[in-house]
Amino acid sequence: MSLGGGGETQLVKRHQEQTAFVGAEGADPTRDTTKEQALPMSSAIERKSLDPSEEPVDEVLQIPPSLLTCGGCQQNIGDRYFLKAIDQYWHEDCLSCDLCGCRLGEVGRRLYYKLGRKLCRRDYLRLFGQDGLCASCDKRIRAYEMTMRVKDKVYHLECFKCAACQKHFCVGDRYLLINSDIVCEQDIYEWTKINGMI
């Protein structure tokens, strides 16, 4: 089942004909770690300057500054600096992660766009991990579900428990990750013995 476009894009800062990439060094904006179609480079975040002497703002679309509408608040953009991402223009404060609300236009931030949501890197990985499946039950992790993450594995909150005694972990509990199984400190010896690892 296809979930639509997804993946990461690089941030682009733009001011008076100078372009500099400030996202991950050496990152390929067309590479998609979720094996789904990545956003095209035109979806990268661009920072533009709104200067009356620089008419029109968008060289390709020939849009004068007075006609720019923010994709977030739907108000006209009169700020000197604004962003372009997901084929829309944005106030700097309006382009934010749909889950945690962090600003996505800041230097070093990446925008992830999947299932119609704008996400920061942390929330994208929390929701979708490597492939969007729980490492314990192999069921899909939905965007609204809470998750736990261990290295490159992502778990439903209810699946994050000891494989031996089924006890849910609390903050500070120690455990061992064996393949995709999580084993509490008390059951490590018994679990490895039963599964032929000793």
From TrEMBL:
CC annotations in GO: nucleus; transcription regulator complex
Subcellular location: Nucleus
Record-level Gene Ontology MF annotations: bHLH transcription factor binding; metal ion binding; RNA polymerase II-specific DNA-binding transcription factor binding; transcription coactivator activity; transcription coregulator binding
Main location, first listed in the record: nucleus
Region of interest called Disordered, as start-end residue ranges on this chain: 1-54
InterPro entries: LMO_RBTN_TF (IPR050945), Znf_LIM (IPR001781)
SMART domains: LIM
Keywords: LIM domain, Metal-binding, Nucleus, Repeat, Zinc
GO biological process: positive regulation of transcription by RNA polymerase II
Taxonomic superkingdom: Eukaryota
LIM zinc-binding domain: residues covered: 68-130, 132-194
A Pfam family the protein falls into: LIM
CDD domains: LIM1_LMO2 (cd09384), LIM2_LMO2 (cd09385)
Entry-linked PANTHER family: LD11652P, RHOMBOTIN-2
Protein known as: Rhombotin-2
Organism: Terrapene triunguis (Three-toed box turtle)
Gene that encodes the chain: LMO2
